[in-house]
Amino acid sequence: MALVNEHYLKLPGNYLFSDIAKKINTFKVTHPGKRLIRLGIGDVTRPLPQACITAMHKAVDEMSKAETFHGYGPEQGYDFLIEAILKNDFASRGISLSPTEIFINDGAKSDTGNIGEVLRWDNSMGVTDPIYPVYIDSNVMCGRSGELGEDGKWSNVTYLPCTAENHFIPQIPDRRIDIIYLCYPNNPTGTTLTKAELKKWVDYALANDTLIFFDAAYEAYIREDDVPHSIYEIKGAKRCAIEFRSFSKTAGFTGVRCGYTVVPKELTAATLDGERVSVNKLWNRRQCTKFNGTSYITQRGAEAIYTAEGKAQVKATIDYYMENARIMREGLQSAGFKVYGGVNAPYIWLKTPDNTGSWRFFEQLLYEVNVVGTPGVGFGPSGEGYLRLTAFGEREDCIEAMRRIRMWI
Amino acid sequence: MALVNEHYLKLPGNYLFSDIAKKINTFKVTHPGKRLIRLGIGDVTRPLPQACITAMHKAVDEMSKAETFHGYGPEQGYDFLIEAILKNDFASRGISLSPTEIFINDGAKSDTGNIGEVLRWDNSMGVTDPIYPVYIDSNVMCGRSGELGEDGKWSNVTYLPCTAENHFIPQIPDRRIDIIYLCYPNNPTGTTLTKAELKKWVDYALANDTLIFFDAAYEAYIREDDVPHSIYEIKGAKRCAIEFRSFSKTAGFTGVRCGYTVVPKELTAATLDGERVSVNKLWNRRQCTKFNGTSYITQRGAEAIYTAEGKAQVKATIDYYMENARIMREGLQSAGFKVYGGVNAPYIWLKTPDNTGSWRFFEQLLYEVNVVGTPGVGFGPSGEGYLRLTAFGEREDCIEAMRRIRMWI
């Protein structure tokens, strides 16, 4: 009799964005004439950079002739893309990595979801709170998170609150945790850590033999000098951290699917007997067994991001979103709200007025000004009393949303 | 201290095709003037159908304008592709499935590798032998396969030998097994099961509450009437089987990455308490958490396979490969070899003469006629004494390889 993995049954049935979609549908049915402005889900709206379009057309044409056809590629990705990454994302910042430390994937969600497979199911884990739900859910699925308590917290997860009270700087734990997820610039709060703050985490990890999963999907939005683009800017990080990168928010690849994961050769984890094992080797084996590489066409598109033309086009798109972020941040501040993020990230984290609950404030915005955000509590218990807005919308929508909110207040 | 998943350490260090690549490299270095004919690895060589090329160009252009840009798609795939699949692959054979029973993916390797996640790690499992290595390796990684014995077999895996002696028809087990992997048309043997033979497996599964993972990646190569294209042609299969399909070998998508998995709503597995749980729901949750959908451009390319033009082009490519298979099969037979497969599959399974070992025969072919095959034992213990040749090469290479082998004999 085939038995199910019962850890899956512990997951709450509904997913944050499905719940929101249902509430939006209800609103639409009951308010057919109203125009909604959606500043909720973190999907991009600008088209792909022209350099990527040109490169993908060329790659599609290559697939049409036997002489230039590409079949199975390397599971780890093509060298042309890996070389472009090493040169532009790392060497330019003084970080030296080798090609076999880079794994091209079909997006950061897959790898952040799958990475836990190479580790024992009963390692302890910690997350900053609020956080991207995949980190916890993927650990629930293998039993690592434990049981869900009435307070909305999982029993084997250490939550590191990030709120206005601590300036969104998570406190270093006072005990050993085996695996820590850090996402900076942060989704959902849009806040960052300075190099000095991130160094404290690397030092903690080295002292405690902790493995850091560092999600840098929003790295391209960093504007301030003192914010690290890669955790490997911190000395010693190659011995304790895996870094996840994505082209989704950098170059609009949410529908094209490409990102990469850095697993340094120096990084090891232990067996029960204390033997040290290369995590790079384990992850390579995982990818060779359960993944067959990313589309050749997609990888040629991603390579084009690193051309002079591609870089200029990516910069223009990010400037557009960051101008949206500025308009929203300043608009909300002038309306009297407390807002965070939006300086080095496309996310605005809004404190609800008078400690209104996240879901209640979400509904007020939906019904009273017809603007859709994402309830902060959907990202974890410490998100209660906040709402996330994203800067990925159309310029006019951002301006109109601010106008409506100012009028409403 | 982060601890590794020690099951990974049980996997033999090298992968079949890496070992072969090394031997080929050694040969090349020591025999620089010789022209090798590679009939080993199962990658296609014909370009993509023109219909797919046209569709992908159009999709790339859509991504270049904000009005037609596509960001995140559904994790389960776009309706346009799912509808084309339902109509052409199933309704046309009298099989009724609903859209939510289809999950578009980035290739069958990912899903055949990941599907085991939704089941308890200690279910018992069975595989036909020889077999595609991913089935076993992915189960080793979660501990389900047990320990590797000196005989090359894993302790918790039931091997169902398929050899010339039993006409490559696996014997129905005399005891209950929780999960059975079946791949038909078979990789590596190229053999098939008739509808009557496959029905015995469905009946066994229903009687024993067994879950069948049915890999139909080579379905498009079936030529004979009595060979089922889908396991759902057998009554009751929706209650016991998941089917994996791939566009890799159908339409040359090995470098484009697209396939799909069918998880019928009727299919359930049990909790320890005996409660029945929908496997479709679990798999949907897995995909929504750890996968972000397949590239929009890729899915538009796959949709074009189902147009009248696309179907004609796919047929022409498959006819080309199957003519290669005929040439190789008949060439080898006339040279006195016993060969199997190649009638409903792009694989030829060659019995080595005089019970020569697989690896020894592989080296004889490599060094004496400069033809590369794949040693049968690389696919499992029952593959010893066989060699796999694939029909995916160039026509002239197949003809030349047969000429060399005839001369050699």
UniProtKB/TrEMBL annotation, chains A, B:
* Record PTM N6-(pyridoxal phosphate)lysine, positions in chain: K249
Per UniProt, the keywords (alphabetical) are:
Aminotransferase, Pyridoxal phosphate, Transferase
- What Enzyme Commission number does this protein have? 2.6.1.83
Alphabetically, the GO molecular function entries are: L,L-diaminopimelate aminotransferase activity; pyridoxal phosphate binding
Q: Name one Pfam family in it.
A: Aminotran_1_2
Query: Might you name a Gene Ontology BP term for this protein?
Result: lysine biosynthetic process via diaminopimelate, diaminopimelate-aminotransferase pathway
Give the main EC class. transferase
Every copy of the Aminotransferase class I/classII large domain together lies at: 36-405
Pathway assignment: Amino-acid biosynthesis; L-lysine biosynthesis via DAP pathway; LL-2,6-diaminopimelate from (S)-tetrahydrodipicolinate (aminotransferase route): step 1/1
Per its UniProt record, the required cofactor names are: pyridoxal 5'-phosphate
- Subunit-level organization: Homodimer.
Name of the protein described by the UniProt record: LL-diaminopimelate aminotransferase
Species per Swiss-Prot/TrEMBL record = Paraprevotella clara YIT 11840
Lineage, please? Bacteria, Pseudomonadati, Bacteroidota, Bacteroidia, Bacteroidales
